[in-house]
C-alpha cells in the first residue's frame, strides 16, 4: 500500500466511523474530555494497524473493541492528555455537552441495566446501542461465536431478571411435585 | 410466552445518538484530528512502546464506572470464589466464560487457542475471578485464587440443565421449587431459600437465576420454556443423553458415550453451525459415577464430571 493509498483508506474509514465511534465512547463515558482522549487514541490505533485490521465491513466492531480497551485503561488510571485529544476538545460544543448529562428516560430499565456487571452491560449495549450483529459481536469482543452466544444468553437472562418485578414471594416447599411439559 | 423485549427497552435508553455525539466535536476539530493522526509514521516503522502501569485503585475504578454509566451501583459483592464465571484476559483479549472445573486457569486454557501461555487466576477485588498470563504483573489489589466452589458450579449446571433440569421442560412454580430444593440437598447447600418471582404469564415456565451465596438464595424466574421444540436439535440431543444419567460410568466412558450420541445426530465439536456442541470434561475422583449436564446457548455445552474409575 502506498502512502497515498494508506492515507486515503484511513481517511475513508475515519469519516465513516467518526460518528459511530463518538457515539460508542460517549454512551460509556459522559466526560467529553475523556471521550476525546479515547477517540483520538482509538483512531491512532487504527492508523498504526491499518495493514492488519480486519476487512472494511469488520472495522467498525474491531474499532469498538479497541475503544473498549482504551476506556478500560482510562478507568484503571492510565490517562494520557495527548495533543491529539486537545485538538478535539478545543472546540467542544457546550450546548451539546449539556445534552449528554440528560439521564435515560426509563428509570426502571436504567436501574436494571446499571445493576449488571460491566461485561454483561457491554455485550447488551453492543447489540442494543451499537446495533452489532452476532458475527460483529465476536469481532468486537475478541471471542468465538459460541462464547459470544453463551455470554449474550446469560446477559439477557440476567437483564430480564433485573427487569422483572422485585420482592420475590417465597412459596411453601412441597416434595414430590411433578413437572409439566408445555403444550 | 411473550417475553419482554429487553433489548428494545434498552435501545430506548441509549444516552446519546451517534449524531449527537459527533456534533459535540466541531467539524474543524475533527479535521485537525484526522490530519494529526495521519501525520504519524506508519506502524511498521515504529516500535510499540510499553506504557507504564499505574497502580490500580479498584474503589476509584468502580466509582468511575458507576459515574460513567449513571449507575447507583451497589458496592457489595460476594467472595470471588463463590462465582460461576471466569474472565479470561489474555494478550489483551477478554472472554467471560462459564466456570466448569473449579480451576479458573484450567477453564481459560481449555477454551483458548494454542499456544496457551501459563495462566494465573486472581480475585480481582470486585467479586470476580480474572485469569491472566503468569508472566504479567496483576494490578494492585488482585490476589491469587486457586479455585472456585465446584458445588456451586454444579448447582448452576444442574439448574440450567436441559437433560433433566429446569431447561428440560416447562416447570411450574411448584415443580421448579421441588427440583431446586432437591439439587440444594444433593449438593450440600443447607439453609438456602428458594424464592419465586411472580409472573403474569398464564403458563409460566420457571428457570433458576444465578445462585446467590451471599443471601443463600436461588430465585426462580419465568423465562419461558427453555427446552425448545420437541424436534429441535438441542431437544433431541438432550433426549439422547438422558439415558446416560441412569448409568454409572467413568468420566472417559461418559465422554465417549456423549460423543457417540452427538455423532449419531450429526453434531460436531469442530464445525461451527447449528449442530455445534462443546464437551467439557473434569475428572473428580471423589465422585462414584460421572454426571452429565447440558446447557444450550446457541451452542450445546455438555459438561461431564466424574471419576477415572466408576464405582457402581
Structural summary, described in words:
The complex is a heterodimer of chains A (183) and B (312). Chain A folds into 2 domains: 1-97, RNA polymerase sigma factor, region 2, helix turn helix motif (Rna Polymerase Sigma Factor, Chain: A), CATH 1.10.1740.10; 104-163, Arc Repressor Mutant, subunit A, CATH 1.10.10. In chain A, 66% of the residues lie in helices and 1% in strands. Chain A has helices at 3-26, 32-48, 56-75, 83-89, 94-100, 107-114, 118-128, 134-141, 145-163; one strand at residues 169-170. In chain A, helix 1 runs antiparallel to helix 2 (32-48), helix 1 (3-26) crosses helix 3 and helix 6 packs across helix 9. Chain A is globular. Chain A starts with a helix and ends in a 13-residue tail after the last strand. Chain B is an alpha/beta fold and 312 residues long. The two termini of chain B are 42 Å apart. Classes of the chains: A mainly alpha (183), B alpha/beta (312). Chains A and B meet through helix 1, helix 2, helix 3, helix 4 and helix 5 of A and helix 1, helix 2, helix 3, helix 4 and strand 2 of B.
